[in-house]
Specification:
CATH superfamily of the domain at 74-217 in chain B: MetI-like
CATH superfamily of the domain at 20-172 in chain A: MetI-like
Order of helices and strands of chain A: HHHHHHHHHH
Strand content of chain B: under 5%
Distance between the termini of chain A: 52 Å
Helix content of chain B: over 70%
CATH class of the domain at 74-217 in chain B: Mainly Alpha
Shape of chain B: flat
Shape of chain A: globular
Oligomer: heterodimer
Distance between the termini of chain B: 18 Å
Largest interface: A-B, 59 and 51 residues
Largest sheet of chain A: none
Helix content of chain A: over 70%
Number of strands of chain A: 0
Radius of gyration of chain A: 20 Å
Largest sheet of chain B: none
CATH topology of the domain at 74-217 in chain B: MetI-like fold
Number of strands of chain B: 0
CATH architecture of the domain at 74-217 in chain B: Orthogonal Bundle
Order of helices and strands of chain B: HHHHHHHHHH
Number of helices of chain A: 10
Radius of gyration of chain B: 25 Å
């Protein structure tokens, strides 16, 4: 226990990094995922095809490989620099990798949400003269979002846990700190593990509860 | 599945407009691809000497096939153990005895919310410090995969049992079966069949997660590809593309299997 108390500042800093990675990537994935969903149902075959290929590639590649690709491939090999500061640069590379991966899952969830919207809704929208973009933006997507609040919550929880893999790009978040502490305080391994595990439970449990509550509150009554 | 109800079937003008738009989109995508191509080219990622090693038999024999064996080995060991863990804890969580049900629920919820990497680190670095025993990277990876995916499978199985009609359980009791017979002979077999697609999907997750092994130095496909091939031929990007392609092919095949299993049940 002493180790966790003694090092509480560095532990909290590590978890703060986890939270920042999660928040920024979640926002990015929501935007990109929505865009991909729109592309997948678009009237243009080329848009549908591109989004479909993207989603099946991103979904079926291990996140470790995606992050290594952004870190080693895009970052080190192609020399893409997002910031002069190495830590900031790595942070953004990790965000890109996490977003690229998670947005595919957001897209899949939203697309299944679109399936729950009755055909009549889109038909009514069309009969009012709304085009594809307006039908999607004003009528079907809002209802789809309300139907998939719970799955989006699961994706957010998975993302929170997935940020631990950002260590392969050199972001020092919670899992890096835990490994260092296990090596330094060999006599308190169990406490350290339980402490970090509790940190994640504390992050994920409220998310589950909030999203569960939201999904009941926002469910479309039909 | 068709989303054609989102827009009118285009008339003659619409068809023409859509063609122009489709061409524009294709142009933009091609331009993007070209930018990527040029950037790769600047760093000489298309140079033949970076790609030809991927076709050589000895590269496959030294790196890719052993890596693939490592990945599949960890995944298969993981899925067997996770399946057992899931069955045991799903049954325990549905027990009539509170003192079995509550601890089982706590175990499942705990392992579901702890990142897999922390479990692997705990097994790999922690176990040595605790017991003086060196846990192999393989054992650490399988340990993590088992506990995490086992908890998820426990929830899948429990949902499967709960989705069965109440009459199944009642009929089994009426025939004089005992609790354990009802679960083992009547409920679980039906639930497992219903859950087969979800279980195959979970196997895909597990297969992808086994790539985490590279962080503790387990010889799996991503490790062999990036730390093996790329270290020898300095071709990170071609190697990463090949490894990704192998994973995508395996997972798409599994995905199709899951769909087929689901469809077979739907008939």
């Amino acid at each position: 226990m002493e180790a966790l108390l003694f090092e509480r500042d560095t532990v909290l800093a590590a978890f703060w990094m986890t939270v920042r990675l999660t928040a920024v990537s979640a926002l990015g994935s929501l935007v990109l995922g929505t865009l991909l969903t729109a592309m997948r149902v678009a009237p243009l075959a080329s848009l549908r095809g591109a989004a479909g290929v993207y989603v099946s590639v991103a979904r079926n590649t291990p996140l470790t490989l995606v992050l290594l690709f952004t870190g080693l491939g895009v970052g080190a090999n192609l020399g893409v620099e997002l910031s002069d500061d190495i830590a900031t640069n790595n942070f953004w590379l990790a965000v890109i990798g996490l977003t690229a991966y998670t947005s595919a899952f957001v897209c899949e969830a939203l697309r299944s949400g679109l399936n729950t919207v009755p055909v009549g809704q889109a038909e009514a929208a069309r009969s009012l003269g709304l085009g594809f973009v307006k039908t999607l933006r004003l009528i079907t997507l809002p209802q789809a979002f309300r139907a998939v609040v719970a799955p989006l919550g699961s994706i957010l929880i998975a993302l929170t846990k997935n940020t631990t893999i950002a260590l392969v790009v050199g972001v020092s978040e919670a899992s890096v700190r835990m490994r260092e502490m296990i090596e330094t305080y060999g006599d308190q391994v169990i406490e350290i593990f339980l402490g970090f595990a509790a940190g994640f439970v504390l992050l994920c449990l409220p998310m589950g509860l909030v999203f569960g509550w939201l999904s009941r509150r926002m469910a479309v009554a039909r | 599945m068709s989303y054609a109800n989102l827009y009118e079937a285009p008339g003659p003008r619409g068809v023409r407009r859509n063609r122009v738009l489709a061409a524009a989109v294709a142009l933009v995508l091609l331009a993007l691809a070209y930018v990527v191509y040029v950037r790769f080219d600047e760093k000489e990622q298309w140079a033949a000497e970076k790609w030809t090693p991927l076709l050589r038999g000895d590269v496959w024999a030294t790196f890719i096939l052993p890596g693939l064996a490592g990945t599949l080995g960890a995944a298969v060991a993981g899925v067997v153990l996770a399946g057992l863990f899931g069955l045991v804890f799903a049954t325990a969580r549905m027990s009539d005895h509170r003192w079995i049900r509550v601890p089982a629920a706590m175990v499942v919820e705990f392992f579901r919310s702890v990142p897999l990497l922390l479990l692997i680190f705990f097994a790999f670095f922690g176990a040595y410090v605790l017991t003086g025993f060196h846990v192999s990277a393989f054992a650490a990876v399988v340990f993590g995969l088992t506990l995490y995916n086992g908890s998820v499978i426990a929830e899948i199985v429990r949902a499967g049992v709960r989705s069965l009609p109440k009459g199944q359980r009642e009929a089994a009791y009426a025939m004089g079966m005992r609790k354990n017979q009802v679960m083992r002979l009547v409920l679980l077999p039906q639930a497992l069949r219903a859950m087969l697609p979800a279980l195959v999907s979970q196997f895909i997750v597990l297969l992808k997660d086994s790539a985490l092994g590279l962080i503790v130095g387990y010889d799996e496909l991503v490790d062999r590809g990036l730390n093996g091939i790329a270290a020898n031929f300095s071709n990170v990007i071609p190697a990463a593309i090949l490894i990704a392609a192998i994973f995508i092919l395996i997972n798409l095949a599994l995905d199709r299997l899951a769909h087929r299993l689901g469809a077979a049940r739907g008939q």
